[in-house]
Design brief:
Blueprint: E1 2-7, H1 11-22, E2 27-30, E3 42-44, H2 49-55, H3 58-62, E4 67-69, E5 71-75, E6 81-84, E7 87-88, E8 91-92, E9 95-98, H4 100-114, E10 117-119, E11 124-130, E12 133-139, E13 142-151, H5 158-163, E14 167-169, E15 175-182, E16 193-196, E17 200-208, E18 211-218, E19 237-246, E20 250-252, E21 256-257, E22 260-262, E23 268-269, H6 277-301, H7 306-337
Parallel strand pairs: 1-2, 1-13, 2-10, 5-16, 13-22
Antiparallel strand pairs: 3-9, 4-9, 5-6, 7-8, 11-12, 12-13, 14-20, 15-18, 15-19, 16-17, 17-18, 20-23, 21-22
Helix pairs in contact: 1-4, 1-6, 6-7
Length: 348
């Protein structure tokens, strides 16, 4: 019997597990795939540093050797320009170009060091319900019970589909293709770039010493050729096959309920041009951890008030998810509207 079961060991899941452990809760984390896992690289805004510090991993991230940069090259509705992150009295801000396999491992190792029990590989099959409440998870390694289950398993929306929750979409179907190339590309040494054109946008970045990553999204449902690579990488060597990801804009109507919380992409998905995906994943994990600790603490103090206090906390969390999703949705809609003259066929 655990206080919390977290399904998924990515940044959102590890952040939630750490937050719950720090609240003296007994936490079990289930991860389907053995680490290190292959995940697309991530550009992290400098604003993530205070969160990493609170999670106790900032020093490890700073020592990991991730590439640093002062901003991004952007060509959207105007000419190409460099947009810096900013600066303050301490100096110029630098973001991280995180290699996700290493970044995710640092967070998971921190959770384990604190005492979180991790079962990899362990596949979550279905939630266990009692009187409309989630009380545990049936897994490939047996049945585990808990007061709360957190779905941090990503945009496949495992728990939402199991519970029959409404998944609301806000765009036409959108698929991003991404891949890696090896070699040297001098124009991409300084910082990542996102370049929009008549058909979509392309993101390119140097992610390791001689390794570069690209992501391509078309505004229409036209498939992106598997052999396609950005022109700036034409003379570089492709690494393995490119892959695709469903980045259709969507959210879950009820990202929290009796005995469950959805965090990260399990709660809401926007395409990568919205930026801050990992930042929001970590924030939602920490927020869910705080909410759960409130529920369990109030239950311990006032046994008779559990139902009321739990519903209040759940409502507050759901509203927080809706607010930030709505803010990012409006911003992203405005960005795409700037390109409407270029591409009238988009229905976003």
């Amino acid at each position: 019997m655990y206080d919390v079961i977290v399904v998924g060991g990515g940044p959102a899941g590890s952040a939630a597990a750490i937050a719950c452990d720090r609240a003296n809760l007994r936490v079990l984390l289930l991860e389907k795939y053995p680490f290190p896992r292959d995940r697309p690289g991530e550009t992290l805004h400098p604003g993530i540093e205070p969160l990493l510090d609170r999670l106790g991993v900032l020093e490890a991230v700073l020592s990991a050797g991730f590439l640093r940069h002062q901003g991004n090259w952007v060509k959207w509705e105007r000419d190409l320009q460099f947009i810096p992150f900013g600066e303050d009295e301490t100096g110029i801000w630098h973001g991280f170009q995180a290699w996700r396999a290493d970044f995710d491992r640092l967070l998971l190792d921190r959770a384990i060091a604190l005492g979180v029990k991790v079962l990899p590989p362990c596949h979550a099959v279905r939630p266990i319900l009692c009187d409309g409440r989630v009380i545990g998870v049936e897994t490939s390694q047996g049945i585990f019970e808990a007061s709360v289950v957190i779905d941090a398993a990503g945009g496949h929306h495992w728990l939402a589909k199991q519970l029959g929750l409404n998944i609301k979409t806000y765009s036409q179907p959108l698929v991003a293709r991404y891949g890696y190339v090896r070699g040297q590309c001098p124009i991409r040494e300084r910082a990542p770039a996102i370049i929009a054109d008549d058909c979509g946008w392309t993101w390119t970045a140097r992610v390791r010493a001689d390794l570069y990553q690209w992501t391509r999204l078309n505004f229409t449902i036209e498939r992106i050729d598997r052999g396609w690579i950005p022109e700036e990488f034409a003379n570089l060597q492709a690494v393995d096959k490119s892959r695709v990801a469903d980045v259709t804009w969507r959210t879950i109507d009820r990202p929290a309920g009796l005995g469950y919380f959805l965090i990260g992409d399990a709660a809401a998905v926007l395409d990568p041009s919205s930026s801050h995906g990992v930042l929001k994943a970590i924030m939602s994990g920490m927020m869910a951890g705080h909410a759960i600790s409130q529920i369990i603490e109030r239950e311990a103090r006032h046994q008779g008030d559990r139902n009321y206090s739990e519903r209040v906390v759940i409502q507050e969390y759901c509203q927080w998810i809706r607010d930030w999703f709505g803010h990012d949705l409006a911003r992203l809609t405005e960005l795409y509207a700037l390109l409407s003259d270029r591409n009238r066929s988009t229905t976003i």
